[in-house]
Write a structure and sequence with these properties.
Layout: H1 13-21, E1 26-31, E2 34-37, E3 58-63, E4 66-72, H2 78-84, E5 89-91, H3 93-99, H4 102-120, E6 131-134, E7 139-142, E8 148-149, E9 154-163, E10 166-171, E11 183-186, H5 193-205, E12 209-220, E13 225-234, E14 248-253, H6 254-261, H7 276-287
Parallel strand pairs: 1-4, 9-13
Antiparallel strand pairs: 1-2, 2-5, 3-4, 6-7, 7-8, 9-10, 9-11, 10-14, 12-13
Helix pairs in contact: 3-4
Bound molecules: zinc ion.
The site of zinc ion (ZN) has 8 residues, from loops.
């Protein structure tokens, strides 16, 4: 994502007022149902002139020098919302992720995560009084005790566990038939990422892993996670679904995974291309023989 978050400039009210008035400034928007896309092919986030009378503007950053704001469609009056969404369509973040370019997908994740946070932090966690937007949306400040709150990001680990050309995959009972993925879970307080990897895998499969190695990360705005992708090794024991979270967990061969990645298997479906789970699986499949 090539957006300058304008971390220094955004604290100055005069600078912000100029950005609000600048004809080239634009806004992208979302609601709890999704993000607003334009009619392009491929689509982009619908960039619109700002609605009039924005009293607490939330600035995402500068897009090639021009300000890009975030608008919560739920906060607009029906008539203003109607005007603002003209020529666009709402798509869930998952559906949008499948059609947007990589940088636009990153921008959509940022937009949704930031507006989700503003929606859920309207009251101070410290004293319960209302909070207001501060630093053009980079934080919120309590109107009573003055505490400043910053958007939170919840770290989660996602791990590809392998043993001699096999990979450990599990499925949740509420997933579509034949859908499997690598194991994942939130990091607990006081835990290192490596400890979280070992605990999650053991809880969900009974398998003990060694040498967890960090691979890559991905912001995951469902609702505000940062997925930290690992690869780890394990002895080839028989896994078993232990904590009731997974319906099934077992080893799959490299060939089974390869066939599933190319869509050739009806009995094994893997996560979509936008996901870090898919990236971990493709990377493992390419580098092993
Ligand atoms: Zn407070």
């Amino acid at each position: 994502m090539a957006l300058d978050r304008a971390s220094t400039e955004r604290a100055h009210p005069e600078w912000l007022a100029k950005r609000l008035e600048a004809p080239a400034s634009r806004a992208v928007s979302s609601s709890p149902s999704g993000v607003l896309l334009d009619a392009g092919d491929p689509p982009r986030l619908h960039r619109r002139p700002l609605p009039p009378k924005v009293d607490a503007p939330i600035l995402l950053g500068l897009d090639r020098g021009d300000a890009l704001f975030a608008v919560d469609l739920e906060a607009l009056e029906p008539a203003a919302r109607e005007r603002f969404t003209q020529g666009g369509r709402i798509a869930s973040l998952r559906d949008a992720g499948a059609v947007l370019s990589h940088p636009e997908g990153g921008l959509a994740a940022y937009l949704v995560a930031l507006l989700n946070w503003h929606r859920s932090y309207r009251f101070c966690p410290n004293c319960g009084a209302p909070t207001v937007v501060a630093q053009a949306g980079a934080s919120r400040r309590c109107t009573r005790c003055g505490t400043e709150q910053f958007p939170r990001t919840d770290p989660a680990v996602i791990v590809l566990v392998e043993n001699e050309g096999r990979v450990l995959l599990g499925r949740h009972a509420n997933w579509p038939p034949a859908q499997y993925s690598v194991l994942a879970g939130f990091v607990a307080p006081g835990e290192s990422l490596e400890e979280a990897v070992a605990r999650e895998v053991y809880e969900e499969s009974g398998i003990e892993v060694r040498d967890p190695t960090f691979v890559t990360s991905q912001p995951w705005a469902f609702p505000s996670s940062l997925m930290l992708g690992f690869q780890a090794s394990a002895e080839r024991e028989d896994p078993s679904a232990r904590d009731g979270e997974l319906e099934d967990v077992r080893w799959f061969t490299r060939r089974e995974v390869g066939d599933a990645l190319s869509g050739a298997r009806a009995d094994l479906r893997l996560p979509p291309p936008i996901s870090i789970a898919r990236l971990l699986l493709e990377r493992w499949w390419r580098t092993r023989d």
